[in-house]
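Entry for the shared binder. Reason: the reviewer on the internal report wants the predicted structure included alongside the sequence.
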Amino acid sequence: QVQLVESGGGLVQAGGSLRLSCASSGGTFSRFVMAWFRQAPEKEREFVAGIGWTGSRSSYADSVKGRFTISRDNAKNTVSLKMNSLKPEDTASYYCAADFTMVDDVWTGPESYDYWGQGTQVTVSS
């Protein structure tokens, strides 16, 4: 049974930084494409960033390019999201997701992901 546990959310002022982490247990982590999604109240869940098996491939939503960086440590079974220059519109619950796949592609649709964490809240004040 694969479990994903996020940490690192909190309250930060606009322009500040946060680092989210996701610890995975169960399964073969190095064969998961990993991603971060977020969901604000009354909005659909949206793709934020994703990273391939080895970390050599990554993808970002246009809204976070240049501000967020996704990384992974296959030895520690963790994936992180460093968020800089945070804006109030980044406020949302952030979810870690894992796609157990035979192809090292980063998909942006939530339906492509097999496992999800419980989410961590990020609130950016203006």
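Summary line for the report: The chain has a mean pLDDT of 96.
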